[in-house]
Amino acid sequence: MSKGQQVVVVVISASNLLEFSQQLEENQLIKFRKELKEGLKYTFENSKYKDDVLVVHDYYSDGLTIFLKMNDDTQNVIHIEQMLRILMPKLEKWIYVRYPYFHHQLEVGYMFIHRQWRTTQDAVYIAQQQAVAMAEKRVQTRYIKTLVQLRTIIEKREITMLAQPIIELSTNQVNAWEFLTRGPKGTALENPLQLFSFARQSNLIYDLELIVLEKAFQMIQSVGCIEDVFLNFTPITLGNKRFIPALEKLLTCFLDIRPKKIIFEVTEQDSIEGLIFFRENIQQLRQMGFRIAVDDTGAGYSSLHTISELLPDIIKIDRSVIQGIDTNRVKESMVKGLILIAKEIGSTVVAEGIEKREEAAVLMRNQVDMAQGFLYGKPGTLEKERVLLI
Description:
By secondary structure, the protein is an alpha/beta fold. It folds into two domains: about 5-150, Nucleotide cyclase, GGDEF domain (Alpha-Beta Plaits), CATH 3.30.70; about 155-390, EAL domain (TIM Barrel). The protein has helices spanning about 15-20, 25-45, 75-100, 120-155, 190-200, 205-225, 235-240, 245-255, 280-290, 305-310, 320, 330-345, 355-365, 380-390, and strands at about 5-15, 55, 65-70, 105-110, 160-170, 175-180, 230-235, 260-265, 290-295, 315, 350, 370. Helix 2 (about 25-45) crosses helix 3 and helix 6 (about 205-225) runs parallel beside helix 8. This is EAL domain-containing protein.
């Protein structure tokens, strides 16, 4: 500033950064904050704007602060807006690759440091607080807009169900389908990761998953599907005291649905701890004839604990374990260990994410029961998929 340059404070904030941080253990939180800061540095250093950056800091807030230097003759606001339009998508992509379950909604506020303040420290602090307010206002506006959109989706039941085949490896025949959900086409909530992440944060996950269940029953009945059907449900929904009565009511409306053909997948990305009605509901589901699967096994830290708690009928091995298993003996050993556990408790094993025949060959060699992945078929409408596979 003493050299005649302007300094601008840029604050990057996220609507759910604090909530996401609270889900992490202390060592994971430290790592996350460090990686987020490194990601921001990397994004700037590998751009044409690298010479503008003075420092990146997690300064005064849960977001990140960047200090940029600019010459007085620069069209500053235009320059900043152009820079952010280019760099923010790159930062979001960087975060998504490392933390795909962090439903980030990044917003940016910026403010120039005014020279008239008595001390530089005061000037920096005031500008930073104004930038935070600008970012938070944008975040709040977007959050409200997305919340209205989600409520409309739930009210109008605007979701689409797709199906992906699950193959029995010994016969190479379709044994089951996994039903997958998509939001309204062409919207930010079309992506299921965004849709369900936002539903969790806004306490609408139970309402959304009840509609998924209804839509799934409709599709099974309308197509006359006789194969098994896998449905992903969060422990939040499965542990809701209203879930069993709601399910029983749906069964009276869809008389062709046979509970023994439905498998509820409990995702490994969510904890079952602290859910009062979860175990009771699981027991009732089994008494009604439904089966239980543990999804994403091998992707999280609590796989073995969840398996020992639920004794699932089916164990689904996450694609992160399967990818490249044909060239990685450690991964193959992991699969062998999970197969031994499955045999001990009488569970069927399904491997997810198979994209290469070499991966399928390793699974067959180890007598994995069933497989799912792009090698066998991408998600599509059940009517179309069944015709193609038949």
